[in-house]
Amino acid sequence: HGADKSGLSDPFVKISIDGFPKIDLKTKTIKANLNPVWNDEFTITGAFDVKLGKVRFSVFDWDMIGKNDSLGCVFVDLSEISVIGALSKWFPIVKCDSPST
Asked: Are 13 and 33 in contact (CB under 8 A)?
């Protein structure tokens, strides 16, 4: 069920990469949805240590008033992302304070 009183959520995703604090990307917010599909594309150039780094997808419920609610995170090893940067796979959402491997 959703995070809002309506039973729905207004989800969006923040994307960051371990060791690169200047990379801070965000998807659009999808209003009143429990099964969002973003299909957003981001291009990031630079040298990354694919053996050590993780991409963090932090999922939030947007709130008009107050702080956005965390819905969870997805952690993806950079080594799983192909050279062209495309990855088509389902990942479980976990609590943000406990990255799983």
From this structure: no
Q: How many CB atoms lie within 10 A of CB 64?
A: 6
User: Would you state the torsion angle of the CA atoms of residues 77, 83, 84, 86, taken in this order, to the nearest 10 degrees?
Assistant: -30
Please calculate the CA angle 26-42-58 and round it to the nearest 5 degrees: 35
Distances (CA, A) of 21 to 15, 17, 67: 11, 7, 21
- 14-41: per-residue pLDDT in tens? 998 877 777 879 999 999 998 898 888 8
> Which amino acid would we find at residue 94?
V
Tokens of 32: 């009143």
Q: How far apart are the first and last CA of the chain?
A: 26
Cβ atoms < 10 Å from Cβ of 82:
9
* 92 CB-side CA count, 13 A: 6
The candidate with the shortest Cα–Cα distance to 61, out of 25, 41, 92, 33, is 33
